[in-house]
Input
Amino acid sequence: MSLTSRSRIVNPRLGTYFGIFVSALSGLVLLLIIFEQLGTPDASLRWGMLIGPLLLYAAIAASVLTKDPLDFFVVGRRVPAGYTGLGVASSAMGATGIVAMTGVFFIIGFDALFVVIGGLAGFVLMAVMLAPFLRKFGMFTVPSYLGRRFDSRSVRILCAALVAVPMLLLLAAELRMGAFVAAWLVGQPQSLMVMLLTLCIVLGLVFGGMRSFTWSSSAQAIAAILALIVPVAVVAVMVTNFPLPQLTHGPLLRALVRNEAIQGLPIVEVSSFAFSLPGDGMLAVTKRFTVPFGSIGPAAFVVAMLTVAAGVASAPWLLPRVTMTPGVYETRKSLGWATVFFGLVMLTVASVSVFMRDYVMDIVAATGPASIPGWAQQLTDLGFAQIDTRSTRLAFTSFSFWRDTVFLSLPIAAGLPNVFAYFAAAGAIAAALVAAGAVVGALGNVIAEDVINGLSWEPLPRQPRVWVARVAFGVVAILGGLMALLAPTDALSLLLTCLALTGSTLFPVLALSVWWKRMNAFGAMAGMGSGFGVAVVTMLAGSAIGLEGPLASLLGIPAGVLGTVLASFATPVPTRSVLELVREMRVPGGEVIYDREMRLLRLKNRDRK
Amino acid sequence: MIERKERKPYWRHTKWQMLASIVPFLVVIIVLPLYAESLNSEKFLGFPLGYFLSAHGIAVIAIFTVASFVNRQDAVDHWHGAHEDI
Output
């Protein structure tokens, strides 16, 4: 059976289904708010907020059981552009992008924008340079694409081995961040929460593979965005009388700038390549919000921004998602949606940090004897903040905040019911599940398709193929869980390291594989090898040469380009069949290359019988 | 389905479209934040202008870049008959 366009019609009831999900989620939150006012024990509210949404996601995942490989690996190529964009944007941010970035904005202000601009640029690069062509090719994973594109099993296996490293780093980062928030939410140890999240991810994938994951992660992404935006919108109504925090925090920011000047916060000058990102822990606010380049130098800002862009554009856990749309046009459109969602979330995150700074500034700027309001005391009791009360007068620098809890502090500072803070936490957990699930799904597919069956272009029979992938999901999730337990490193630096490695290893090779016909398999291997190798060496030698780990792609990407170009020129031109494949990939019209190959393979096998 | 002799002009057109989408965007995102500080003395919607342009401005430019790319590239596809038949 060949797949015609007719069988790829988008489900017209998707909107209804997700409408039901949003109603159920809102119902849960409203119910918990009512219960809180009625005096229900706090622990029940917290567990309700953790378990309720998880059950909804699991129900969605379990309701789309599938055995068909095309459904299992690429959702039958019928995910509309909007949902794909939502999934791509939220997998790119994850919990780290929401929780840690709020804290980073709060502490270093303007300099945190490198992540925002880098992410947006990543989607633009992906939309223009990579995604439409990978969609036309239609492979399930990035190593499969590169392997088939160069007709080389060595490229496929080398790529699979190299992409596993950054993907495991990201998985560990997301699980740690998710577990941290979940542990705060229900007051259980983080290790237990890592196990719970791992279990949720496996449950979200085993039933229907990427099909289960795509629909449950769409629900998770919607929950994450709602949980981020709703509390901030409520605060915005309280503070600025208008529920659009992204646009209305301007006057607040201006007052903040004035007060910072009155308080005498220093304008810090750092060297061009300085890159000091706030780590995980209590940090004092010492930098003015809107003054650029106080902790990240201008050159480092540009390099880090391009690193994030290259990493996001060539992310092997995002690219398979854009091949699940009904067509090439939809793939391009989906990345437009990804930019919209990513921009919206990041501007909201920035406004959370401005509101939070404003609340702190209110204490400091108050005339009369210094007094600490109830919410600040509550934050100190929770361990979110420290207030240095030794001096007679409170200054802005008397406050230290824990980077990863600024996000949860805003509903408390605004005096909203506790359930709002719990809802925000549930949103962060959902975001962690989206990103970690995307990695487990993508890496599981890589292992099942490119490692276990990597030496053959002929896929396993239908049933074993799906079962191998299911087992691979479990193995990857457990591996990621172990890494999250054993490697206690800051999630944000893990994320940036992962993006630097991905960008150096894959971006030059993927971009050139589309735009440079002369490139051959040796070029691909040399490009990936040199990009990855140089990036790793730069990271290890980082302090000696004055280049922080996340900036390693400054050398890694040029090394990747150089390796690709030199090795391609030094070796024979690609064969005629490979050139024909490239020409075909560049044209959106016609049958998806992978689907056609599978159809021909089935015909051949039928003839043989 | 695209005709054989249309492939070359189609790809040339596509390459120019890629450059026209990416190069101005990259120039803006690299240059704009470097001048943010001097723009910050101006105000827009209450925001310091440099911060506003680097955050909201670049988000809008990115969305506009992708939207115009999708629109133009689709026109290029149709012009050369390279579009999908769905």
Summary: Chain B has three helices and two strands.
